[in-house]
Please model this.
Amino acid sequence: MVARLETVVRTGTLVVMRDAPDPRKKVNMPWMTGGNNAMRYVQSEVRRICRAAGLPEDLTFTSFRHGGHTDGGNADLTDAQMRALGGHKTTAALLRYAKETDTQRQVGARKRLDARTKKGNLSE
Model:
């Protein structure tokens, strides 16, 4: 899947964008999740990709979104950066996807310790 993603023409900041530009906005837009099963195409593509990659059948587009946002948290991206990449307007919307992990807790603890030791407030 990574090899395929590396060959895809980038049409926007998100991984999954519509194939053609929006007629009114003249840019490629992300796939919408609302409406009368507006995700049918994306869901069928996810099924096809999962089968081809030997991934579990219960993975969904939302699974990939959760994984991508959690990776962003592990990479220490700010909420603003993750909202921009994911197209979220609020932090509350972002937090539905970005899950807390041990990696994030470890990075946070390391930053806290670094801040304390740089100020001479050693905790040891």
